[in-house]
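@channel sequence for tomorrow's demo:
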Amino acid sequence: MKLLKFLLWLVPLSLLLALAAVIGAVSLMLDAHPALPEPPVVAPADAEKLLQQLALNDPRRLRTGQRSEIRLDTADLKLLANEVAHRLPATRLDLQPDAGGMNIAASVELPAASRWVNVQARVAVSDTGQPALDTLRIGQLTVPDFIAQPLVRRAMPKALEMTGVGIDPQRFIDLLDRVQISPAGIALNYVWSTELWKAGLQSMLPAGEAERLGFYHEALVKVVVGMRKDGDSELLRAMQALFVLAEQRSGAGDALAEQRSAVLSLALFVNGRHPRDLVPQAAEWLRVPRLSLTLRGREDLSQHYVGSALLALHAGAAWADAIGLSKEVSDARVGSGFSFTDLLADRAGTRLGEQIAAGRGNIAQRFAAGLAVDDVLPPIDGLPEFMPEDEFLRRFGGVDGPAYRAVIDDIEARLAKLELYR
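structure tokens (generated this afternoon):
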């Protein structure tokens, strides 16, 4: 009888102790404040440099089985970390390479608990050049290796899926031939797989994107055929037709997804790309007849406007603005010259993407009803363009000069007058 009483006393006590241990462990993992600061705004020069580096590994130039290498310095890594964090809810992320390893820090907000989970991990490179988890710390709690390894293996696919890549990360890791990490950055030697590239690209498309894109591609074919017969090239006519369809389909579906697919269809067309680049089954779709869609009579403004809208929808306004500016800086060096007119179209497109992403402004309804060019893009009068680099630097002092800033303020003031972007 005494033994039974003892057991009856011991069982609830054990449960209470176990609960206390769990609560204690959880409290050690939660912090009142994030360990990482707010990420800085993307600098145009950094965006340009990273894009140039990634362009060296253009998948269209690689063959299956071909060995290649990509090198990223610390600034590149931090920029990529910020982009990944942007795609995750309430997350900040930082990467810091050192001698033989990568230090990964993340701060994730738990709004319901008004607390933060601060994670620190280190990935080391083995003698064979392969990456492996070295340490994992969550808050004040160092996670034992036998728990950390399976925890990370389970968390990585979920994190990738949340960033829009629904594919097993181990498939990418298996392609790595050798990894080299130093305080200066990282070098990844890998064996290219076209099949994995296509699978990864498709996995990044939102659910149902292929089907939606097919509807908008078909609508684009029809409207372009009609425009060619009428001798019309106005971008806004094509946008009206696609947003009419978006309005119709949004009644029984996802309004944001429909408008995003409409913009994607247009962006592919105005930039001379075919949907099969994203969706293999699109190879059987009818090709949109050739037609240069124009905005204020210019094809380049259509390309800037629609392209920036798509970038803002998928990567955010900061990246869209930075990439737009980096392109103009590049054009000043080796292309058609720096153009504030192009920047105006870029920023107008960015505002459009922002409005769609935020669900503001009844965008589909307004485009479907028909908009005049003055409703979409402010007048371009007085904006300097076609400036070679030396002229741009002489007149405006570069992208940090007060004269440059004055023109940007003028561009923002012009955009602020348009009700569509408020």
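heads up for whoever presents: The first helix runs from residue 2 to 29.
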